[in-house]
Amino acid sequence: MACTDSDYAYLREVVLKQSANLIDPSRNSLFDAKLTPIAHKAGATNLQDFVRLLQTERRTHLHRAVAEAMTINETSFFRDVKTFNLLRETILPELVERRRASRRLRIWSAASSTGQEAYSIAMLLLEHLPETAYWDIKIIGTDISRRVVEYAQQGRYRRLEVNRGLPARMLLKYMTRDEEEWEISSRLRAMCEFQQLNLCAPLPSLPEFDLVLLRNVLLYFSQEDRSHVFAAMHRLTAADGYLLLGNAEQAEDSTNLFEAEFAAESFFYRPLRDSVQRKSDY
Ligand SMILES: C[S@@+](CC[C@H](N)C(=O)[O-])C[C@H]1O[C@@H](n2cnc3c(N)ncnc32)[C@H](O)[C@@H]1O
Questions:
Q1: What is the per-residue pLDDT for 251?
Q2: Starting from the edge strand earliest in sequence, which strands make up the sheet with 175-178, in order?
Q3: pLDDT (tens digit, 9 = 90+) per residue, 60-73?
Q4: pLDDT of 280 strictly over 50
Q5: Which atom of ligand 1 is nearest to the CA of 148?
Q6: Ligand 1, closest atom to CA 113?
Q7: Residues 162-201: pLDDT tens digits?
Q8: Which residue is closest in CA terms to ligand 1's atom 2?
Q9: Which of 243, 277, 250, 251 is nearest to 87 (CA)?
């Protein structure tokens, strides 16, 4: 039996509550495509039965599975050439200059999906700022979806994934082939770690970051949630640190927290304030 409008409205509510993601009613068919396998696995005969199950049994893990299945995990190595040019030409060299005394960098790939963003930053550092090979560097990737976090932790990518954005020379230098897959080198692995985290829920203990990448996720949030996320980013970004958004995104409702700058054909953001560097042993 097909779902009614109120069934879809209920599913949208579940997603909003679990992940703060807004799903437009014009995309109802996505629920059928993405949730039918989960419905069958849970013992429901169709999506409408599954909605009843969610409403009556209130099994939290199923609610979470619904939100997770509805996330859009689109990503690739070195996604958005201009952003990676900005990182290579301006942001990373400036950060390395400023942190030469402590030889320590903390970078956050917030909404990291399957990990390509974090591993791309690690490659950029080793490739263009080789002195950082001996620094204390942590690139922390977080995402609400457990499935993509586990994928990133495994660090094994299919041919289709490495063919998107990763220059052949970098592929051969930083990954090894294992039959049909390519595995991230231990050197890159040691720089990156991944954990599950909901950006719209109270955040766990995190270090202060020199660079935060919050790319291509804000578009799924309401304005209110976006403001909360920006406030958290502001708290967690070093006073002389950087925030990067996706190409089509702006911090338009948080101009009191971040100021926009432009370099290498891209915008980036700096926190507005004098903050005292927080000590962290993360
Ligand atoms: C389109 S991907 C972007 C990946 C990467 N940042 C990039 O630009 O290539 C968006 C990611 O945001 C994650 N996401 C959605 N809502 C989230 C939330 N509330 N907290 C953390 N991650 C979330 C999704 O699971 C998805 O993997």
A1: 85
A2: 156-158, 181-184, 175-178
A3: 899 999 999 999 99
A4: no
A5: 27
A6: 27
A7: 999 999 999 999 999 999 999 999 999 999 999 999 999 9
A8: 73
A9: 243
| Cα–Cα dist 207/161, whole Å | 30
Atom of ligand 1 nearest to the CA of 199: 20
- Determine the distance separating the centroid of ligand 1 and the alpha carbon of 209, expressed in angstroms: 18
- Look at residue 274 in the predicted model and tell me its pLDDT: 55
Distance from C-alpha of 209 to C-alpha of 77, rounded to nearest angstrom: 22
d(CA 182, CA 162): 8
8 Å CB contact between 144 and 199 = yes
Q: Which atom of ligand 1 approaches the CA of 214 most closely?
A: 6
The whole-angstrom separation of Cα 160 and Cα 61 is 31
Strands across the sheet containing 104-110: 192-196, 136-143, 104-110, 209-214, 237-245, 266-271, 258-263
Burial profile 9-33: b = 16 or more Cβ within 10 angstroms, e = fewer:
ebbbebbbebbbbebeeeebebbee
Rounded Cα gap, residues 270 and 259, in angstroms:
5
In this predicted model, what pLDDT tens digit does every residue of 123-172 receive, in sequence order?
Answer: 999 999 999 999 999 999 999 999 999 999 999 999 999 999 999 999 99
Give yes or no for a contact between 188 and 153, defined as CB atoms under 8 angstroms apart: no
Residue bearing the bigger pLDDT, 279 or 67: 67
Contact 196, 143 (CB under 8 A): yes
Residues whose beta carbon lies within 6 Å of some atom of ligand 1: 19-21, 71-75, 79, 111, 113, 117, 143-145, 148, 198-200, 215-217, 220, 246
Domains and CATH numbers, the chain: 5-70 (1.10.155), 81-271 (3.40.50.150)
